[in-house]
User: Fold this.
Amino acid sequence: MTDIHFGTDGWRGVIAEDYTFDNVRRCAQGFAQFLRDTAQSERGLVVGYDYRFDSEHFAAAAAEVLAGNGIPVHLCARAMPTPVISYAILDRKTAGAVNITASHNPPTDNGFKVRADYGGAVAPEDLKQIESRIPRDLSGVRRMSQEEAKRRGLLTLFDPTEAFLAQVARMIDVEPVRQAGLKVVMDAMWGVGTGWFPGILADGKTEVVEIHNVRNPIFPEMARPEPIPPNIDPLLRAVVAEGADIGIATDGDADRMGAATEQGEFLNQLQVYALIALYLLEVRGWRGPIVKTVSTTSMLERLGERYNVPVYETSVGFKYVAPKMLETDAMVGGEESGGYAFRGHIPERDGIVANLFLLDMVVRMEKKPSELLDYLFSIVGPHFYHRRDTGFPADQRQQILQRLENSKPDRLAGLAVRNIVRTDGFKYMLEDGGWLLIRFSGTEPIMRIYTETTREDKVDPILDAGMELAGLGQ
Assistant:
């Protein structure tokens, strides 16, 4: 049996290598035991899944184990976006959810994600408790067939669409967007974001042109369904070819978003987060804290100063963002991956609502996406961002870590280092208001090196300096 370790949201593996039906059943047993031990089992669980290979069958395997432990299961009748599954937790008042998805990762992968009763990521200490209860083999796994579970009232098939759409209507009045006459190119990336925007914006003057909008678990034209270049390049080309006003995208499970200007230029995740925060503050008139991870934009601090709202920084991952949002009653939380969550909704990434907010910003401010970016920069100043992911031999991790621990540079790429923040990795705060971040991936032997700077000519030199600090060359 595979030794299973939970990452940020749960467990991910390679299909047929370690991600097998037996290992999914073991994970389900671990979650079931945790719920039983914490007196939550009677509340039941939502079980959902995406368009990845065999996801519906892995979900059925998990459901059979949960039912075998006497836990009522609300099983989605078809593939659903992650935010729809998460909202179903609140709608059905369950103890949480199991979601079979590997989100934006390569087509070889699938995952077992867990969610808490508040509709967001399970807190890190509870993730450890679930992991510790995963049995070492199948002898500790209880199962019940779907037929028997239905007969005993332990398994119900349901469609969470209507409840989610009602929630969307509470979050935003889409009628102005529907009647604006925009031409929107939507890239569903072969995932479960397919059909949602044509449906929500139907019967109006706005036209939605979808691409990559059928199930295809090998994700042609992209290395993975993650809405960043080069995966998003077909969307950028389609925006120009269609003469569209904007391009939007969701990742494989629709909890993350991507965007393109009317000129077919990518709006990076840091720019989008700052735009969404500006929209909530200026257009919607919201007030309240902003939660961000250590790897996302310092433009949020500038907006916080302008609108007198606090900004809190956490480690990378929504298992840190969600609890901080709940603790501070934050109006928005987000991370560098393109995932954003909103007060009054769920403390969970939602690529559907986030994209609708961006479309509404275009309509309400009467500005093209490129003009919105110019307006943002007029407030916070220009900011330039890039990230490099570099593999390294796993056995050298400790050596790299020690090298970074011992290195305390005064300057990087000619810029003075004002402070080193150790929230998650090594974040060097620079004199221009920018930063360099070096951190290990939580799931694979990859070093991530990020920078955001107010000087475009410094992007590559700062990243080069980060590579040198880590001893990874260039």
